[in-house]
Amino acid sequence: MIDPYEIVNEQYVISGADARHVRTVLRMKPGDRIGLFDGNGMEYDACILEAVPGLVRVKIVGRGMTGRESPLTVTVAQALLKDKKMDALVRQLTELGATRWHPFTSSRSVARPDAARLSNRRQRWEKIARESIKQCRRGRLMDIGSVLSFDDVLELGSRSDLSLVFWEDESKPIHSLLTRKGKTVTSVLIMLGPEGGFSAEEIDKATRKGFVSLSLGPRILRAETATVAACALIQYVFGDLGPGVAGCAS
Q: Is 231 helix (H, G, I), strand (E, B) or coil?
């Protein structure tokens, strides 16, 4: 990922770990073409001018907006899970095209790290997100939000066209959304619980705030599996993973 403000006379210097990756993993050399991105939706076509230990200098020969971003703005609110589960989710949600990700605490959250540990974890999640967009060739970095409370997430619902909460005791399937009439959906907030799931009181509170409670099917999924499944289904129904279905909200 590059900083567009560091492009000088259509040239850019790649350094550090990225330079090592270009030289030793990709085994690229002067004259080779390479694709770069800035994390804000712009792609750059570049030609390598110089490749030495610790430095790769390129010339920008073309640029344009990436075509790999979903037209749907997807915000995923995930109740805190154990460390490695959250790390894996950052990778998978980046690949699925999520726009932003907010961890939060709920009544049944087992993981409740202190402020210092949360700061370290957030830095790690941001690093994982940057690494992941290289793999999936997205042009835009998934935003890692601050850790919120349950009530904070409910307030976020008003900023999206559609706010959904997935609950294992719900029976209403996701395709029920397609029968609703109203404005076209361009932004969705999806809310998923911790390992122990949401309490009935939390679901009641969410639905009173305008959230739609939905099921992910008859089987009980692990918390991390549920999040990936929900994001993929939302991208299929409203985003760029499906046949172009135009979803509507009430």
A: helix
